[in-house]
């Protein structure tokens, strides 16, 4: 594991209140794969380039989703993937997406939020779209 992955996992572990880095790694994988399925084009690849090398494929190598997810649908998709309760999944989603928002500049984050149905800004730790 390279240092940048360790930093990302530490941030998610701290934000999500996970006892073990392995828990953080699991939710990072799930959340990034769900996110990647809902992004297309340059926004998807631009975000993948900003993440640690091993995280990029989690966004770029998933098949596209058949339909967009509302913010609650996004959380439920993560819950279903990891067999989590909705509250646990929301904590995972916000921990990972807030960490993603920290590495993305405002322009990229704005483009990502434009691809998602309204209301996703809160999952990224933002009160309003950037």
Describe this structure in words.
The chain is built from 7 helices and no strands. The protein is mainly alpha-helical and 130 residues long. α5 crosses α6 (86-103). It is globular, with a radius of gyration of 13 Å.
Features of the shown structure:
0% strand; 130 residues; mainly alpha
Task: Spell out the blueprint of helices and strands.
Layout: H1 3-16, H2 21-37, H3 41-50, H4 56-60, H5 71-82, H6 86-103, H7 106-115
- Computed structural class: mainly alpha
Largest sheet, if any?
A: none
Number of beta-strand segments = 0
CA radius of gyration is: 13 Å
Number of helices: 7
N-to-C order of helices and strands? HHHHHHH
Q: Report strand %.
A: under 5%
Q: What gross morphology would you assign?
A: globular
Mean pLDDT across all residues, rounded?
93
Please report the distance between the alpha carbons of the first and last residues. 32 Å
Low-confidence parts lasting 5 or more residues at pLDDT below 50? none
User: How helical, in percent, are the residues?
Assistant: 55-70%
